[in-house]
Amino acid sequence: MFTGVRGSPTREAHAVAASEPVRVMVEIDSEAETISGLLTVEGAPAATFYGWLELIDRLERATSPPGAEPDPAPGSPGEGS
Questions:
Q1: Is 45 a member of any domain?
Q2: Which of 16, 28, 36, 68 could be cross-linked to 64 through a Cys-Cys bond (beta carbons 3.0 to 4.6 Å apart)?
Q3: Alpha-carbon distance 65 to 77, whole Å?
Q4: What is the pLDDT of residues 18-70, one digit of tens each?
Q5: Does residue 26 sit within a domain?
Q6: To 5 degrees, how large is the angle CA 71–CA 72–CA 74?
Q7: How far is 64 from 22, CA to CA, in rounded Å?
């Protein structure tokens, strides 16, 4: 069980926990109207983000295997619903 996490971890949590750690640096623009800035992952070009959803997307991509596409958001056109 992971510290601070209630319930059983999901399969995805096990996969991330078993993999190598990913070092991510997030630079936040404190002057911006909403959260925005630059996210840098070791060995990859920096990516900008604007808003919480883009930040979450960049973090998901940082923890995905190279070349993998993250799952589409619920209700998005790519979800197939």
A1: yes
A2: 68
A3: 23
A4: 577 888 999 999 999 999 999 998 888 899 999 999 999 999 988 877 666 65
A5: yes
A6: 115
A7: 10
**Three-class HEC string of the chain:** CCCCCCCCCCHHHHHHHHCCCCCEEEEECCCCCCCEEEEEECCCCCEEEECHHHHHHHHHHHHCCCCCCCCCCCCCHHHCC
Residue 49 lies in a domain: yes
Which residues lie closer than 8 Å to 53 by C-beta, 6 or more apart? 73
What is the reported pTM? 0.58
How many domains is the chain partitioned into structurally? 1
Distance from C-alpha of 41 to C-alpha of 25, rounded to nearest angstrom: 6
